[in-house]
Design goal:
Order of helices and strands: EHEEEEHEEHEEHEEEHEEHEEHH
CATH class of the largest domain: Alpha Beta
Number of domains: 2
CATH topology of the largest domain: Rossmann fold
Number of helices: 8
Helix content: 25-40%
Strand content: 15-25%
Oligomer: single chain
Number of strands: 16
Largest sheet: 8 strands, mixed
Distance between the termini: 41 Å
Length: 310
């Protein structure tokens, strides 16, 4: 029996695949370019082509984790076409499940949605029943994925949708907030030079947690017997300026880093929205432990351990 992970090269895919392999689970890891089948005894890489769905028809799949997405930070525009985003972010998931069902498999499904489905509204606190108002092709494609999961659930497929709020790790690309600020701060610390850091609205607030902790919640969810939609969040808010101050203070470089805040640096409008994770807590007993200052401290240590900027 395999666990199928689509989107294995992204932040969440890397964390999840490492955890599954550490647990001795046979995995199929799907990235944009290839497919890796890894068990205790074999490791086989297959080039991904237009017929890649058919690879799964002869394999016994236990769980499907659909984490694939074309996403960018709030400072960058998605350059991919709307069709490519729709396909990657949601439609391919339906094709995979349909292929598995046709071959006789009936796997559990986890789909990674996004808090962006709630739109650019300052709603303070949202839950699973809050109305959706997606405002970009990324969030619209994620909402389509939610609809697909709802339909599959009605057809008897055990489906779990995680509405993920911001979550960070040292796997993030350098144009995302935490990675960008920590990179700059570590460079300033090592070089002892003054540097400029360009960011967006300092008053914008984030509900942001630690990615490995969110992935543990995802694994616990798919191993439960309570399908449905779940918000995965910290239920706390920190402003951009608070986050930046915590990072620079942690590394002792406030005197070296000049932060240039300009709203024009943002492509996506800022918003302030918290996720109510009480449903997840009631079902799994899960509560995030790493956010705020603890999140900053953990991320700084993670980056330094990996020697990413040597």
């Amino acid at each position: 029996m395999y666990d199928l992970l689509v989107g294995s090269n992204g932040q969440d895919g890397k964390i999840l695949s490492n955890l599954l392999i550490e647990q001795g689970i046979d995995v199929i890891l799907v990235s944009r370019n290839d497919i890796l089948i890894q068990t205790k005894s074999i490791k086989k890489r297959i080039e991904r082509n237009s017929n890649w769905f058919n690879i799964f028809s002869d394999l016994s799949i236990r769980n499907v984790f659909y984490l694939a997405a074309i996403s960018r930070s709030s400072e960058h525009i998605n350059k991919e076409s709307s069709i490519e985003q729709l396909s990657t972010n949601s439609v391919d998931m339906f094709s995979i499940i349909n292929t598995l069902l046709s071959s006789g498999s009936s796997p559990k499904l986890f789909y990674a949605s996004s808090s962006l489905v709630f739109g650019n509204r300052d709603l303070d606190l949202v839950n699973e029943q809050t109305s959706r108002a997606p405002s970009c092709i990324y969030s619209k494609s994620k909402l389509i994925g939610e609809y697909i999961c709802d339909s599959l659930t009605k057809d008897g497929i055990e489906s779990y949708t995680g509405i993920l709020f911001n979550h960070e790790s040292s796997y993030r690309k350098s144009n995302f907030l935490f990675s960008k600020v920590i990179q700059t701060a570590i460079y300033a610390q090592k070089s002892n030079k003054q540097v400029e850091l360009k960011l967006g609205d300092p008053t914008s607030k984030l509900d942001v947690g630690y990615a490995p902790e969110f992935i543990e919640a995802i694994i616990s969810l798919i191993n439960s017997s309570s399908p449905g939609s779940y918000i995965i969040s910290t239920n706390t808010l920190f402003s951009i300026s608070e986050i930046v101050d915590m990072i620079l203070s942690n590394l002792g470089v406030k005197h070296l880093v000049y932060v240039n805040y300009e709203s024009s640096n943002l492509i996506r409008p800022p918003r302030q929205i918290r996720g109510d994770n009480s449903k997840l807590e009631s079902v799994l007993g899960w509560k995030p432990e790493i956010f705020g200052q603890d999140l900053v401290s953990r991320l700084v240590v993670d980056y330094q351990k990996e020697n990413l900027f040597n």
